[in-house]
Amino acid sequence: MAELRVGAAAEFTEGDRAIVSTGSEEIGVFLHQGTFVAYANRCLHQGGPACEGVLIGKVEAVLGTDHAVIGERFSSTRINFVCPWHGWEYDLATGECAADRRRRLRRFDVVERDGDVYVVV
Q1: How far is 61 from 3, CA to CA, in rounded Å?
Q2: At a CB cut-off of 8 Å and minimum separation 6, what does 94 contact?
Q3: What residue ranges define each of the domains in the chain, with the CATH number in brackets?
Q4: Is 78 exposed, middle or buried (0-12, 13-18, 19+ CB in 10 A)?
Q5: Could you tell me what percentage of the chain is helix, strand and coil, using 3-state DSSP and rounding each to the nearest 5?
Q6: How many other C-beta atoms lie within 10 A of the C-beta of residue 105?
Q7: What's this model's pTM, rounded to 2 decimal places?
Q8: N or C end of the chain: smaller count of CB under 10 Å?
Q9: Which residue pairs, CB below 8 angstroms and at least 24 apart, start in 33-38?
């Protein structure tokens, strides 16, 4: 397997991303909770640039004492990225589709070595 250099690890801050290309495939590389994660930049819906959309907290239900839903809030710990074409959301930590957890983006291994970040392709 080959490694594709993404950049210097020091250039990333929490929530940053880079899009790299290898042949006909694009890969989105994110720094999430101190760890680099990488996914195919191809939405499962219609092939849009899934990794290029906004990052947003997962929507969570707020429950009352009777366990009835009394509202919603954005999570401060579970982050999704949103495909800019049609709004499909993916869990940043796992690549799972928020609407159907059985589906997920292809994940790539990421290696940090000598201060640089590489995607294994």
Answers
A1: 41
A2: 104
A3: 3-120 (2.102.10.10)
A4: middle
A5: 5, 55, 40
A6: 25
A7: 0.88
A8: N
A9: 33/93, 36/6, 36/9, 36/12, 36/110, 36/112, 36/117, 37/92, 37/93, 37/95, 37/107, 37/110, 38/107, 38/108, 38/109, 38/110, 38/119
Distance in angstroms (rounded) separating the CA atoms of residues 102 and 90: 12
The whole-angstrom separation of Cα 10 and Cα 13 is 8
What type of residue sits at position 77? T
Among 13, 4, 30, 48, smallest CA distance to 95 is for 30
How many CA atoms, within 13 angstroms, populate the side-chain half-sphere of residue 60?
A: 13
77 Cβ neighbours under 8 A, 6+ residues apart: none
User: Which residue in the block uniquely carries the two structure tokens 């590489």?
Assistant: 118
- Given a cut of 90, whether residue 77 has pLDDT beyond it is no
